Amino acid sequence: MTASSTQEQKFDAAVREELERLHTRIAPRFRRPEVRDRARRYLAALQPPVDHRTGRQMAEHIGEEIDDGVQRLLNKARWDADAVRDDLRDYVLEHLGDASGVLVLTEIGFPKKGPKSAGVARQPNPTTGRDENCQVGLFLAYWTPRGRAFLDRALYLPEEWAEDKVRRREAGVPEEVAFATKGELARRMLGRAFEANAPAAWVTGGEAYGADRRLRGWLEARGRLYVLREGHSSELSWPQGTSLPTIPGWFGFADVNEAKGLDEQDRGPQPQGRSIGLTNFLIVGRAEGTGWLTYHRAYGPRSMLLPGIARVVSKRRDIEEGLERAKGEVGLDQYEVRRWDGWHRHITLSLVAHAALQVTRARVKSEREAPAPV
Q: For the chain, what is the domain count?
C-alpha cells in the first residue's frame, strides 16, 4: 500500500468520525429512532465513493433492499429540515468562524425533464447560462481562511408556480409560501446568519443579487459591507474625470456618490442610519476569456482600494467552484424527489455531509501547518 493511499484511508476514516459527531448533534431533530438511524446511514452514503446516488443505489448503500425507506426519510418522516439547517449553520460557525469571513450568495440550476418537480420551469439556469427546464437553488456559503462551507439554502419558486394551486398542491408547496424574488430569499438567508451572529466582514454575490436595489439598501441600512456583481455589457460610458487605477482584469473604480457624469439612479441608496465613513463604489472589470465588461457594486470604507474589492470577489469564485465539487462529493444534485419538503431535506443533508468533509479538511490542514514541537 502506497503512502498516498494510506493517507486517503486515514482521511476517509476521519471524515466518517466527524460525520458521526455531527449526526449526534442533529439526532434530536429526528423523533423516531428508525428515522434517526436512517438519516445517519443516508449521510454516510452521501460521502464518496458512490458513482450515482439514485434512490435505489442509496437504499443499497445504506443496507436496504428497496428505496421505500429513503423516500420516507425525504418525503414523509417527521423531522424539521429547517431545524437541521440551523444546526448546520451553528456547526460551521463553531469550527470555521472567523471575523474576516465572507458571506457568499450563489445559486445552482438543477436540470429536470418533467414539469412536476417543485419550482421547475423553463428559466435561466445559473449553472449553464442557458434558458432551460430546471429548478434553481439559492445558497448562502461561508468563506474564511480556515475553510469554507454552506450555511443556508432556498428553492426559488417562479411566479407561474406561486399562482398555480393545483401544481402547488401536487408538489407539496406549503400554503404560506408565496412568490419571492431572489433578492428577498437572499435577505431571509442573510437575516438568519446575522441573527446567529455569523462573523463576517463582507457579503458578496452574483448578478441576481447585485441588481436588486432593495437588497443593497437593506445591507447598507445594517452597516453591512458588500461587493455584488450587477451585470455585464460590451460597452461602457465611464464618468469623466474619474481616476482609473488598474490591476490585472480590473480597470475601473469610482466612488459613485462623488464621481461626475453618473445618473442619479447609478448612485447608491441613502438609507437612514447609514454608517459614517462608508460609501458606494462602482467597479468595472473584464470577464475572463471574453471582451465583455463586468460591473460590481460595492459598499465599504472610503479608503477602500481596488485590490481589496477584487479579493472579495475572488471568494465568490472559490465558493462557486466548491459548489460544483459538492455535486460529486456529496451528491448535491443527485436526487429523485419532486416535492417541496423532499428537495429541502435532501439538500440540507447533503450540506451537512459537505460540512463534515470541509471541517475535516480544515483540521488536517491545520495539523499539517502546525509548527513541530521543540
A: 1
